Amino acid sequence: AQSVSQHNHHVILSEAASLELGCNYSYGGTVNLFWYVQYPGQHLQLLLKYFSGDPLVKGIKGFEAEFIKSKFSFNLRKPSVQWSDTAEYFCALRLTGTASKLTFGTGTRLQVTL
Amino acid sequence: GAVVSQHPSWVICKSGTSVKIECRSLDFQATTMFWYRQFPKQSLMLMATSNEGSKATYEQGVEKDKFLINHASLTLSTLTVTSAHPEDSSFYICSAYTDSSNTEAFFGQGTRLTVV
């Protein structure tokens, strides 16, 4: 069965610092990959997604992620974080050509200090 | 983006009682909705896939008689936790895709269930 690992459970950064959150998955076939963000008290929102093509995908709010197939990774990056980026971040995958359910990682709580 | 609304946002109930959680797609029709459960500091785990007009598909290990799912219309799916126990206390989240291409799932805000 497929799985998603997020190694950083809690990350604390100062404003303007660069961010990289790790995401690795386990599955031998083709997958779609997603990053979701959940701000306190709000819905899960899609940050970005990778289906095919350019492995470097850009999302909303200045986030980007790079799919490295050889490493089974889909790390999330942002050059300069803001206090408003404080949230929980979830990496997820979906198997292509199957039912649309998502498999989530455990999430990373990002805390940005002023 | 599309809006998925859950109600209630939080609920406290006594052991042995049943609780119903509603998931509505406010501005689109959803033939399929998904119910997830999240334990503290853990991942969202898919419980079941709710299909409009037919029986839900449950993931392995999820008791279908305990977690009753009804998807009576294209905009409403309900999850009923029957004979709730403290171990059912959790965060329940629903999601839906807006179209058949399934490019992006939209999530409800979640329901925090506490069974005392």
Write the layout of secondary structure elements.
The complex is a heterodimer of chains A (114) and B (116).
Chain A: E1 3-5, E2 10-14, E3 19-21, E4 24-26, E5 31-38, E6 44-50, E7 56-58, E8 64-68, E9 73-78, E10 87-95, E11 103-104, E12 108-113
Parallel strand pairs in A: 2-12
Antiparallel strand pairs in A: 1-4, 3-9, 5-6, 5-10, 7-8, 8-9, 10-11, 10-12
Chain B: E1 4-7, E2 10-13, E3 19-25, E4 32-38, E5 44-51, E6 57-58, E7 67-73, E8 76-81, E9 90-97, E10 105-107, E11 111-115
Notes on the structure:
The complex is a heterodimer of chains A (114) and B (116). Chain A is 0% helix and 53% strand. Chain A is an all-beta fold. In chain A, strands 2, 5, 6, 10, 11 and 12 form a six-stranded mixed β-sheet that branches. A four-stranded antiparallel β-sheet of chain A has the order 3-9-8-7, with no helix packed on it. In chain A, a hairpin with a 4-residue loop joins strand 8 (64-68) and strand 9. The N and C termini of chain A lie far apart (41 Å). The model of chain A has no long low-confidence stretch (mean pLDDT 92). Chain B is an all-beta fold and 116 residues long. Helix content of chain B is 0%, strand content 53%. Chain B contains no helices and eleven strands. In chain B, the strands form two sheets. In chain B, strands 2, 4, 5, 6, 9, 10 and 11 form a seven-stranded mixed β-sheet that branches. In chain B, strands 1-3-8-7 form a four-stranded antiparallel β-sheet, with no helix packed on it. Chain B is globular and about 40 Å long. The mean pLDDT of chain B is 90. The A-B interface holds A 4, 9, 36, 41-46, 49, 51, 90, 99-107 and B 1, 4, 32, 34, 36, 41-46, 49, 93, 95, 97, 102-110.
